[in-house]
Amino acid sequence: MLPRAVRYLMAVAEHGSFTRAAAALYVSQPTLSQQVRQLEQALDVQLLDRSERSVKLTEAGQIYLHHARQALGALDAGQRAILDLRDLNKGSLCIGMTPITDYLAAPLLDHFGRRHPGIRIATLEMSQEDLEAGIAENRLDAGIAFTSSFSSGSRSADIEPQVLFVEPLQLAVATSHPCAGRCEPVAARTLEREPLVMLNQGFALRQLFDAHCREHGIAPSIPLEADSVSVIVEIVRQGRLGTILPRTIAVTQKGLCPVELRPELPRHSVTLICRRGAYKSPACRAFVDLAAYACLEEASQDGYAANGWIDYWHGTENNR
User: Which of 14, 126, 272, 317 is in Cβ range 3.0-4.6 Å of 130 for a Cys bridge?
Assistant: First the structure.
């Protein structure tokens, strides 16, 4: 909003009279006159010609009022922009994701985009360490990652996690693989002779798997590593190598078949993370709220499992 004295000057110029301007603004004439004079004193120039019956702007007053109106237009535009943000008609959102979680978070991102088409969403795939750094340094609005593998360094204190769902990891092989279609669980020791293609050791899923193997004294055969889940899935489809994936992905990827192991592989938690105590834009708050709502709905029905999470979004979309 423009300063009071500027609004008073605009009213006098419009009505050509202090009396009529004061009446239009519901203020006393002395108050209005005093405010305009204080403005002239601050600018050290006369803005109004008071010599005639009708008060007119001086040349300096015309110049000043021209810029004042431009400022008023800019302020109005700023107010409209804020309202657009509040109404989520405009805005942007930058979400970081670790490999694997992008597959599972896709339904949430798609639904948010449908609900708020004016919000531009950018997604970045990165390692857990880079994701944490992006959150801590405010380069990302939010992240979707593995809860169980937050780094033990100082950044962990900056991160506020919210679990979205939990599900088990499973061996995934091609439908042509000898282990495919087994009704009984396969011994985890099988991983020592069945070669695997895995994410490299910088990724959270690999770290979780390696820790499980150390705990159970398993030495898996991993002749090939990659930094892309899509590449891993394509390699597994060739039939020679297996991999470790969340069950939901293993089930939904064409040409892949999940295989249960005993002892069971660990369950992983997919988590929405933000910087603790940081400012959240309206778009970010809406995204967090939407994820939290779906999390509560799905947890009450499916115990925080990923298949329930995805079914929830599909059901929501079908009921639009």
Answer: 126
